[in-house]
């Protein structure tokens, strides 16, 4: 009797999983955003929040990884506001628009990046105009 009770107790302890920690890994598409400073240094360990456009409560919060990355697998198509808070108090806010296939439809880009071509073109025109004026003055004088 005692032996059978002991065997039953030992078998029951194998089914309890008292202090077991489990994890589940699935493959799913995600958007990965890398946050960097202007000098191309990764913003590692910065807190961030992601919230649907027009909502106050974030649907995802966390910290950027050691490479300055944020992974976001959106639950539904739509626009999401991403806010990253850097330790120097600057941070960045931008918007991601996700379509029905869970891919990036549009992303907000910094002002400099959006207008880099225009700024470069104006700079080239001013440079050419400056060279033209320099040669014109030398030939006139």
Would you kindly provide a brief summary of this structure?
By secondary structure, the chain is of the alpha+beta class. The protein has helices at 2-16, 111-114, 116-140, and strands at 31-34, 47-52, 60-63, 69-72, 78-84, 92-98, 104-107.
Walk me through this protein's architecture.
A hairpin with a 7-residue loop joins strand 5 and strand 6. This protein is of the alpha+beta class. The strands form 2 sheets. It has a 5-stranded antiparallel beta sheet with strand order 3-2-5-6-7, with no helix packed on it. Strands 1-4 form a two-stranded antiparallel ribbon. It has one domain: Immunoglobulin-like, CATH 2.60.40.10. It starts with a helix and ends with a helix.
Structural class: alpha+beta
- Please state how the strands of the largest beta sheet are arranged side by side: 3-2-5-6-7
Main sheet? 5 strands, antiparallel
CATH class: Mainly Beta
CATH superfamily: Immunoglobulins
Shape: elongated
What is the averaged pLDDT score?
77
β-sheet strand percentage: 25-35%
Instruction: Count helical runs.
Output: 3
CATH topology (fold) name: Immunoglobulin-like
Report helical residue fraction: 25-40%
Query: What number of domains?
Result: 1
H/E element sequence: HEEEEEEEHH
Alpha-carbon distance between the termini?
A: 119 Å
- Architecture, according to CATH? Sandwich
pLDDT below 50 for ≥5 consecutive residues: which ranges? Answer: none
